[in-house]
Amino acid sequence: MKTLLASAVLLLAPLAAHAACAPTDFAIQDFKVAASGAGMGTRMMMKGQVVNHCAEPAAAQITIAAKDANGNVIQEKKGWPAGTTNIAPGQSVDFDLGRLFRYSSDMATYTVSIASVRTW
Description:
The chain is mainly β. The chain has one domain (21-118): Sandwich (Immunoglobulin-like), CATH 2.60.40. The protein is built from one helix and six strands, in the order αββββββ. The strands form two sheets. It has a three-stranded antiparallel sheet, with no helix packed on it. Strands 4-3-6 form a three-stranded antiparallel sheet, with no helix packed on it. The longest helix is centred in the first third of the chain and has 16 residues, at 2-17. The radius of gyration is 20 Å and the shape is elongated. Residues 1-19 form the signal peptide. Keywords: Signal.
């Protein structure tokens, strides 16, 4: 029984030694918003890069909020720029989540943030 317990502790010890990545370990760079087309055919582009500053490969989910002139959220969407792929430490992934948004002339400002982090 002691051998089994000792084996389990040694097996799980490396997992406990690694701290999980947090949203603060990721950064968003070069976020830009643009609209092209006119009327019902207006297409939103919300491009940027997510950079992993964690010591481990991980993925980040981002949130983009479109706000009106008073700062009220009109639309908010979440997405995983790298899909179900981890981003290596120090690496970045390009994203464009504009396709998730329906254009509205009330959109005045946009915010983007890291919503969550996980390892696939």
